[in-house]
Structure formats: structure tokens, C-alpha cells
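Notes to self after the call with IL:
- keep both proteins in one doc
- input above output, always
- annotate only the second one for now

Protein 1:
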Amino acid sequence: MRGGEVSGRWKRRSWFQPPGRVSRLADRHASPRAVALAAVLAVGIGAALPAAAGCLDGVTVPIEASLEAEAAAPGTTATTLRSADGARLRLAGVAEPLAALGRQAAASDAVGAARAALARWLAAPGLAAAIGQAADRHGRWPARLSDGDGRDLATRLVEAGLAPARPTADAPGCAARLYPAEAAARAARRGIWADAAFWPLAARAEGDADSRRGAYVLIEARIHSIRRGDGVTFVNFGADFRRDFTALFPHKGRNRGAFVEPPHSRDIGREVRVRGVVGGANALSVRIESPEQWEWSGP
């Protein structure tokens, strides 16, 4: 569950390159605008600071380009940022409230609150960033941002209850570090956690099960059964596969993210918290692509 430790500022190849090497980004998933932002950020490379261990290791550099939260639109969220040159960053380790709730009015309020908070923090001087090594399919680069006082912006969002933590394969370690802050916000019913629609779900989806598909959810349930299939292991939280949630563990070599060892038969009956986007044509399933999506409750 914990991201790997970082030894050395350049243990992995960082997205940030000295100005003479920025052009190499064009050979990867970087748009010309993202390359332009890299060049702007690289001006401050001499003042680089060590990155937080376990989340986008490499270096943290001062940001010398203005950033603002994107307006809500298809494929964008309150946690997506755009530079003056049009390059796009995504706060690593957090989920957009819009994807965690089915009721649009409440979701819009949550997104608005998150965007307003980000606008205040982004306007303050001294912003710094560590950037991931590849953009996602929307052209957004995972980023860990901190303000002039060294406070992490994702942590501030989660502490205020303005966003849940969300692990992704392109930013390992960035979500797990936020789980204590999320748990405290949820217990205090701050922000989105004041609305029961954001609370963790049980094994069975109540109401319209189809409305859950495409939503980012937390599930707290006990393992009912485990079945190994062709290329995937099914971890079922109930007997009715059409109404009860299932976690899918792709076998090694078939996962888009990191391979995650599925639980064993001896784990049947154990309670677990699962995070992910609900999919499945006939069943309600969550694909496990990161060990951070799976949290055992107790021994």
C-alpha cells in the first residue's frame, strides 16, 4: 500500500528536463504546449527541491507560469489545471467530486467549492510542482503541487473534504499518502462527506444499479467468493453478480497498470475497502490496477 522510497533526486527520468533536452518530450505523449510549459518550468531547475518520497519521485521545481483550474466540461474536472500556454496538469492522487456522485446538483456544488479553493491557492506566490512521466489519454500530466509554505495542494483539498483520494497507475503512492486525511475528513463529515451519497457503498448496489456505472466509488464489504477465470480473477462481494459488486484482478501481463496479486481462498470473509470506477456490461465490477485500490480492514 505504500509507495516506494526515493533515493536520489534523479532516480527515475523526470518529466522536467534541462532546456536543451525538452524537445525529447515530443517523442512521448507530450503536446507542443506541454513541451512549452516544460521549458518554462525548467528555468528554475537550479532551485530544484527533493520530491516527497513515494509520489512522483524526481525533483520539485518552482512554477514560473500561471495556472488555473479548468472550467467544467466533458473530460475535464475541478482537479484539472491549465497553464497560460494551454498545457494541462492533473492533481495526482485525488478524484473529481463530479465522478463520485450521481446527483448532478450536489456534484456541481462540490466541484465549484474545489475549484474556488484551488483558485485561491494557485494565485499565491511560490507554487512548485513535481510532474509525472507521461500524460493520460486526455493529455493531462499527473502533478504534485505545493504552495509557497510547502503545503501540498492535494492534501489540502482532501483535508477540507473537497475531493476523495484516488489511486492511478501513472502516479503510484500519491493516493495512499492521502488516506489518513480522507479518513479524518469523512469522520468529521467535512465537505462532500456531509452528503451520504459520497459515503462508501456496501456489497450490493441499492436503487438503480446501472446509474453506478462510470462513477468513482468506495466499497466496503466482505469477500463472498473468489473465482479464477481466463485472464482474470473475480473477487465477489455477494452471490448476485448483477446486483453485488465484484473486483476484477487481471492476471500478470494483462493489466494496464501494475500487477496486483489477488486475494486467496483463505481471505474469504475478510473485510476490505475497494476504490475504483464501476464498469461491466452485465455485472458491477471494479478493475484493480493499483495495490492502492485495495485496503484490508484489520489483520
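Protein 2 (the one to annotate):
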Amino acid sequence: MFIRQSETSTDMTPVSGPQNIDHPARGDSSGRAWPLVLAFVAALSLGGWAYLIAMIADMVPVMDMTQAGPGMGVLNRFNLFRGLPAETRAALAVLCLPAGATFGMPGPEMTLADLGKVFLMWAMMAMAMMLPTAVPMLKSYSAGTSARRGLGLRSALPVVFAATGYLSVWLAYALVATLVQWLLFSLGALSEMMAPISLALTTSVLFVAGLYQFTPAKKACLLRCWYPHWVSGGDPAGGTVLSGFREGIYQGRACLGCCWAVMTVMFAVGLMNIVWIALLGGVMALEKTFPSRIFPAAIGVALILWAGFLASTVLLASAPA
């Protein structure tokens, strides 16, 4: 089930493993600098979660949360929609609050300010979902910089900039996702609650994401996530802020190639579906942290089967009696 280090090319450095023994200075894996780096990553990630939770908390009292996607209906127990029929909930959702009137939610006009809100939402999702998945890579890089520069606190700076470079790649993805969301909303494929209106969109996204799990690109990028190949060569300790930022961008590109499809599943389950934000974030963290041939394939099979189930439901519903 698990991939041995010997099965990879010799120019790759595992996220954790025997390479740490070669450096006596790495006794604690990353020195005194690592807690500072971890605090920086945790602060950004928790900031992303705080923003997303604030958006949901402002929506719950006045919106039918079933419209936000699968699993979100459980939050209706905290508002006036609890126990009401679907038709009644839909009527009240129209009467209670105009779209865009809660914290962080874009309006139906999709003005420049609304697009800014959408981008900020995607940026917060990147911080909440993707930064935690980079912790093993950042810890390995921190161990390298500590070995090169000693265990002083100043060795945290290149690693912090590596995290910043990594995040910048996902902010670029957030920009593209914002434009895609605007296009889908303009075409009537997304609701004002940022959930798919048609099962055709949901099925297509799930199928493509599942299929991507079996592509050579996915496998190559995931391998780079398991065993980082540092830009500076065999030694990850370039030791400067600029080299740290470059490493972050390089590793962020590998992560993007690995995880963009699973991240895009948000278009299928609802972009403000915090249940699936947490679930998909956890799935990507497990996939990137623990080398396994089975788990990525299982994700792909699950997504394809889900897409097939939805497609069959549509076909059966449209078949003549």
C-alpha cells in the first residue's frame, strides 16, 4: 500500500525520513525556528476559518441553509426554517433577506465589489484548506535551513517566506476560481447562495475531478508533495528570504497540480458549504501527508461513482413512464 523511498528517484527528499539523521543539528527536526513558523501558518489558517465561519454565522439566522449544498441543512435547526417544507423554505428565503445582505456574501449584480468579496472568500478557503497541507513540507524545509544557519530564530524567516510563496500560488488559483464563479453565475449555473443549480454541473465537476486522480500529472505532482525536490538542489537550505519564497512557489505549484481538481469539487457541493470545506481539506491533508497508492485512487473512484449515481438519477427522472 505504501510507497518506499527507494521507489522514487534519487533526487527527491522525503518529507520525513532518513535524511534528517545526516545532520546532527536537526535533532529536533527543525530547531527553535519551527514553532514560530508553525504559529505563522496556524494564524493564517485559523484566520481563514474565522472568516468563513463568520460568513456562515451571519447567514444562518436568515437563510435556508439547505440551499448552500449537501450537509448544510443541519444548520437550519438554529433558524426559523427548521422543520418547514421545501416550498415554504423557498418562499421565506425570498422574503426574508435579499442576496448579498449578509457578511461577505456577493450580491446578484456581481459588481466589482462583489467580485472582490468572492476573491476574498476563495483566498480564505485557500488559507483554511491548503496551508495546513503544507506543514510537512515546511517542517522539512525548516530542518534544512536550521542545519545550514544554526538553530537560531532567524532561520524561521526563509521558511515563513516559503509559506508565503506557497500561499501565493493558491491565491492565483483563487483569482481564476473567482472568474470561473462569475462566469457560471452569469450563465445561470450557480445560485445566489453559490451552489450549483443543475445536476449537470455537479456531475461534470465530480467526474472530471475523479478522472484526474488517475492521470500522470496528478501522480507526478503528488509524488513531489510526498518527496519535495528542492529548487536549490539536494540541500533544501538555501538560507535566504528569496530562496525561501522561490521554494514556496515551486512546492505550491506541485501542490496545485496535485489538489486543484479536489479543490474544484467545491463548485459541485456549494462554494459556501463549510461542511465540505472541512471534509475536502482533511482529505487533501491526508493524501499529501501519508504516501499511499490506494488512497488517491479511492478518492477518484468515489468521485466517479458519485458522478455516475447522479447521472443515472437524472436519466431515470427524464425517462418516459
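Annotation: The mean pLDDT is 82. Residues 15-315 form one domain.
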